[in-house]
């Protein structure tokens, strides 16, 4: 009898465990690749750790543009997202998104980054104002460091991407990497791109340091955040945030721009500076 009870207890326990796994909460994470080489592999290790720590099942949804990332959360097809700063403030307004964490690269203390205006080493452009009348490449419409911040920096020297008299040509290359390659391949005189992607492509030998020069560097840009939908129960949001902030203790992790040393907490008000920038540009 004791043996039978033991067998039944084991079976019952197995059913409980099986049921628990089957009932694990499923969440989708949407992201826009930050580069030609950027894909879900940048987040795989992080999400694996978060799944392990929370018991959730987070899966990836890849989209090709920033508007689609916002729409995915608005329509509840995705509940977690990596957004660029500019896209986040749109998602907060339209899709009930809330920023909660941002990755810090190895060797750095701050999650913020910059827009670089990059030219070839042999370029005749010596100062930032020399870009007037030249061919300018940017990332894609909606990008923070590859669209919004370049517009801000250019406005400071009284240039505009929409003024036909200011540039010979302005085009969106589709990614930070493609923007940089346009300069390297002499398809553009200058490109505005993320410092994170610049450093990542330098590290993987896509280009050599003496191939290009940084003509201009912007002020600090608020980091691209991980955000979750406020539709997720608060208890689950707290579990996800805690797991992300502790993930570096459980293995190597990645994120926007490649490898990360750890994640830090961010909040919605950290992005008010970008909201103010957008308002200013809209007025102009």
**Content-based structural category:** alpha/beta
Q: Number of helical segments?
A: 9
Order of H and E elements: HEHEHEHEEEHEHEHEEHEEEH
- At the first level of CATH, the class of the largest domain is Alpha Beta
Taking pLDDT < 50 over at least 5 consecutive residues as the criterion, the unreliable ranges are 1-22
Strand content: 15-25%
- Main beta sheet, described? 6 strands, mixed
Say how many strands there are: 13
What is the first-to-last residue Cα distance?
A: 84 Å
Features:
five-stranded mixed sheet, D-Maltodextrin-Binding Protein, domain 2, six-stranded mixed sheet, globular, alpha/beta
Please give a structural write-up.
With 284 residues, the chain is α/β, with parallel strands linked by helices. It has 2 domains: 24-110 and 223-283, Periplasmic binding protein-like II (D-Maltodextrin-Binding Protein, domain 2, 3-Layer(aba) Sandwich), CATH 3.40.190.10; 115-217, D-Maltodextrin-Binding Protein, domain 2 (3-Layer(aba) Sandwich). 39% of the residues lie in helices and 22% in strands. The chain has helices at residues 2-22, 41-54, 66-74, 85-94, 144-156, 176-184, 195-203, 234-246, 272-283, and strands at 26-31, 57-62, 80-82, 97-104, 115-120, 135-138, 169-172, 190-194, 212-217, 226-229, 253-255, 258-260, 262-265. The strands form 3 sheets. A 6-stranded mixed sheet has the order 2-1-3-10-4-13, with helices on both faces. A hairpin with a 2-residue loop joins strand 11 and strand 12. Helix 2 (41-54) packs across helix 8 (234-246) and helix 3 packs parallel to helix 4. The longest helix has 21 residues, at 2-22. The relative contact order is 0.20. Mean pLDDT is 87; it is low at 1-22.
């Amino acid at each position: 009898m004791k043996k039978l009870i033991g067998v039944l207890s084991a079976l019952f326990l197995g059913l409980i465990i099986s049921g628990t796994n089957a009932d694990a909460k499923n969440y989708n994470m949407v992201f826009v690749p930050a580069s030609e080489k950027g894909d879900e592999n940048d987040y795989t290790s992080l999400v694996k750790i978060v799944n392990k720590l929370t018991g959730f099942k987070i899966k990836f949804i890849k989209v090709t543009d920033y508007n689609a990332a916002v729409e995915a959360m608005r329509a509840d097809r995705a509940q977690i997202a990596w957004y660029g700063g500019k896209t986040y403030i749109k998602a907060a307004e339209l899709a009930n998104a809330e920023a909660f964490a941002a990755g810090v690269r190895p060797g750095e203390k701050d999650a913020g980054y910059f827009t670089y205006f990059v030219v070839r080493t042999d370029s005749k452009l010596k100062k930032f104002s020399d870009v007037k009348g030249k061919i300018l490449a940017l990332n894609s419409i909606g990008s923070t460091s590859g669209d919004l911040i370049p517009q801000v920096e250019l406005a400071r020297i009284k240039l505009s991407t929409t003024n036909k008299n200011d540039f010979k040509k302005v085009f969106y290359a589709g990614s930070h990497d493609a923007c940089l390659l346009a300069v390297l391949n002499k398809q553009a005189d200058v490109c505005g791109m993320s410092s994170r992607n610049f450093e990542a492509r330098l590290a993987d030998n896509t280009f050599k340091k003496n191939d290009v020069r940084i003509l201009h560097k912007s002020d600090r840009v608020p980091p691209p955040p991980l955000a979750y939908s406020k539709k997720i129960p608060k208890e689950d949001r707290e579990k996800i945030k805690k797991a992300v902030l502790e993930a570096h203790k459980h293995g190597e992790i990645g994120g926007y721009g490649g490898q990360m040393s750890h994640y830090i907490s961010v909040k919605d008000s950290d992005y008010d500076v970008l909201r103010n920038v957008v308002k200013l540009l809209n007025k102009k």
